[in-house]
Design brief:
The complex is a heterotrimer. Helices cover 67% and strands 0% of the residues of chain A. Chain A is an all-alpha fold. Chain A has a single domain, classed as Ferritin (Up-down Bundle), CATH 1.20.1260. Chain A is globular and about 55 Å long. Chain A starts with a helix and ends in a 6-residue tail after the last helix. Chain B has a two-stranded antiparallel ribbon with strand order 1-2. By secondary structure, chain B is mainly alpha-helical. Chain B folds into 2 domains: 3-280, Ferritin, core subunit, four-helix bundle (Ferritin), CATH 1.20.1260.10; 282-318. Chain C is α+β, with helices and mostly antiparallel strands. In chain C, strands 2-1-3 form a 3-stranded antiparallel sheet. Chain C is flat. The relative contact order of chain C is 0.18. Classes of the chains: A mainly alpha, B mainly alpha, C alpha+beta. Chains A and B meet through helix 1, helix 2, helix 3, helix 5 and helix 6 of A and helix 3, helix 4, helix 7, helix 12 and helix 13 of B.
């Protein structure tokens, strides 16, 4: 019989997995919008690859969350039948694609975070989470390599591209603080050596951003007010539309198999 | 014997002898100008079709009804981009740049397959495209994989391997829906009703009206006529339709024992020519999306070239 | 920048498994080496077709021409002794 303490742990664990899965899914969904519209065919294919990795990550963490819940739910129940306030993806993931520069900037900021996050999560005491983190970390290493190279090219390209990248930073920077926020779920799971203490990776992330921005001749913003809320399901208005589109067909045919 | 001393006629004769013997022509080999031109026309048209072909299915990536389907569809549409890329690169070996090909396409001079000018209106259309459109493409491309031009043939070999997954995932979508709810069955049937005839048109005009076929057959770029390939596709597809209980919308479709083939009704060629010439339901929309992608990408393409030049001049300075 | 381009062409070579030679797979467009490598990975190894990749600027490749065919390759025709089955090795196993 599971003890009461372990039950709490389980709910925290489910929440924790859902957060990771939601971020990957929403980011993958956003990147999927690029398919067929990239600036050059090669890059179209590259963005789709990243999108596919993200959706794969989401499926892994949803499947584990569903198994932990143990009520017979599937990955699709979790992706398609939860509402806006139930989603706990990082706010930055749901921000609009904007132009290619903004998409690349969003990818870079998130990939740099995920790189150190999964690197730490690989040591999770929960074996399934550790294994999922290890797989994800490999994929994210490539996303980071890809997006950093692009940030440098576009930051240090033409006057126009530099302006666009500065605008992208301006649009997105306020959502970067949310990536490092922690709540009681995090605290409980950190105590159990299951979750990542984001305080530990914040400096690494900042160093990476500084290093790449320096090469891209872009400036790291200082003293910007940070939006938070993802852990309480408090989103920007973007998420509602993403879910409306993503879930419409699935919800129109309850119980149908596809 | 050096080919430098041969006359144009002798060269052409040698070229035809090589084709007759089933030899493969490579980029640096001598070839008649018309062979080069026709190949450029046909291959670039094929490449444009792959790239435009990303759009009707791309429409449904964000709405795919399950995560598995979403991943499969993304991978499939991505493959189409890859196929476009293989063929563009193959065409570049004929001495035309991708810029020139894109210019022909974006200004509307070059054509692309008429099938992609039809809208995708429900999820079953993803099944119909995979099963019928990719099924038709496989029939075409399996033959093209044996064509006389090396780079085209090699691109086709690679593409055919990947296309089989497209074909099967489409059929699986329909098979699943045909076992599902009434609404799903209706969607599946509706998709087939709309895509059956346009997919038959993919093989091009009937042989008697196909202006470029003669040369292409002689040069073994094409190995079978449009009608022969269309027939092959129909013969293959009818039993698959019966297998999942879906009806093909042609009352005249019937097995002809004497011929060993299915008979079928007349294709509406007026529709075909209208759609090819820009008057299909989505022509304007597809072209606009491609043009927008190109225009919106210009600053990106410029920026990386500028960045690379900066890096090079820094190297020189150092 | 005045002229918009699709960037220079690179040839891609893939190694399918350890110990196998790198074989020509196709080409990609890219501006720099890193991009060429990444594009090659995304275009020619979507299905684990490669464990190693080479990219080479297309313009850096020098190829023999069909006119060379006679003078380059025919002289090797009469040197059958370069092939192991030229030699008689009665009874011995190799």
């Amino acid at each position: 019989m599971p003890t009461f303490e372990k039950m709490i742990n389980k709910n925290d664990l489910v929440t924790y997995c859902l957060r990771i899965a939601d971020t990957s899914l929403i980011l993958g969904q956003r990147l999927g919008e690029w398919c067929g519209h990239g600036p050059i065919l090669e890059e179209d294919i590259a963005l789709t690859n990243i999108s596919l990795d993200c959706i794969g990550q989401a499926r892994g963490f949803y499947t584990y969350a569903a198994a932990l819940e143990g009520t017979g739910k599937t990955e699709d129940d979790l992706a398609y039948l939860r509402d806006e306030r139930e989603f706990q993806n990082l706010l930055i993931a749901e921000q609009p694609n904007g132009d290619f520069g903004q998409t690349i900037m969003r990818q870079f900021l998130v990939s740099a975070f995920q790189y150190y996050f999964f690197e730490e999560l690989k040591n999770s005491k929960d074996k399934t989470i550790a294994a999922l983190a290890e797989k994800s970390q490999k994929e994210v290493s490539y996303h980071l390599r890809h997006s950093s190279a692009w940030v440098i090219r576009l930051g240090d390209g033409t006057d126009e591209s530099k302006k666009r990248m500065e605008k992208a930073i301006d649009e997105l920077w306020m959502y970067t603080g949310d990536m490092f926020d922690m709540d009681e779920t995090d605290a409980t799971l950190i105590k159990e050596s299951i979750a990542v203490d984001t305080k530990k990776i914040k400096q690494l992330w900042e160093n990476k951003i500084r290093e790449v921005f320096a090469e891209a001749s872009l400036t790291v913003p200082e003293n910007i007010f940070m939006m938070s809320g993802s852990r309480e399901g408090k989103h920007t208005e973007n998420l509602g539309f993403i879910l409306a589109e993503m879930q419409s067909l699935h919800r129109a045919h309850p119980g149908a198999e596809w | 014997m050096s080919i430098k001393n041969l006359t144009e006629e002798e060269l052409e004769k040698r070229f035809h002898d090589r084709i007759e013997k089933g030899e493969i022509i490579e980029p640096k080999d001598w070839m008649p100008e018309r062979y080069r031109k026709q190949l450029i026309r046909m291959m670039s048209q094929h490449a444009h079709s792959e790239v435009v072909g990303m759009l009707p299915e791309g429409n449904w990536i964000t709405r795919a009804p399950s995560l598995r389907r979403k991943a499969v569809l993304l991978a499939k549409v991505q493959d189409e981009g890859g196929h476009g890329l293989y063929i563009y690169c193959g065409t570049e070996t004929l001495g035309i740049s991708r810029e020139e090909m894109l210019d022909g396409f974006l200004t509307g001079k070059a054509k692309y397959s008429s099938i992609f000018n039809y809208p995708t209106l429900n999820w079953a259309d993803m099944g119909a495209i995979g099963w019928l459109v990719d099924g038709a493409a496989i029939v075409n491309q399996t033959v093209l994989a044996k064509c006389s031009y090396g780079p085209y043939s090699r691109a086709m070999v690679r593409i055919c391997k990947e296309e089989n997954f497209h074909h099967k995932q489409g059929y699986e979508i329909l098979a699943t829906m045909m076992k599902g709810t009434d609404a799903q069955k209706q969607m599946a049937q509706d998709a087939i009703n709309r895509f059956w005839w346009p997919s038959l048109m993919m093989f091009g005009p009937s042989d008697k009206d196909s202006p470029n076929s003669g040369d292409l057959l002689k040069w073994k770029v094409k190995l079978f006529s449009n009608d022969e390939l269309r027939q092959r596709f129909i013969d293959r597809t009818v039993p698959q339709a019966e297998n999942i209980g879906i009806k093909l919308p042609d009352p005249l479709l019937k097995w002809n024992e004497a011929k060993g083939h299915y008979d079928h009704g007349d294709i509406n060629w007026e529709e075909f020519y209208n759609v090819i010439n820009g008057r299909g339901p989505c022509n304007k929309q597809r072209m606009k999306q491609r043009r927008d992608a190109h225009i919106n990408g210009e600053w990106v393409r410029d920026a990386v070239v500028a960045h690379e030049e900066k890096k090079k001049s820094e190297k020189v300075a150092a | 920048m005045t002229t918009d381009t699709q960037w220079p062409l690179w040839e891609v070579f893939t190694q399918k498994k350890q110990g196998a030679p790198h074989e020509h797979a196709g080409s990609v467009h890219a501006v720099d080496k890193e991009m060429a490598l990444q594009n090659a990975r995304d275009v020619y190894s979507r299905r684990n077709e490669a464990i190693s990749l080479w990219v080479v600027p297309t313009e850096a490749i020098t190829a023999s021409t069909p006119e060379d065919m006679g003078s380059f390759f025919d002289p090797a025709n009469d040197k059958a002794y370069r092939h192991p089955n030229f030699f008689k090795t009665p009874g011995a196993k190799f």
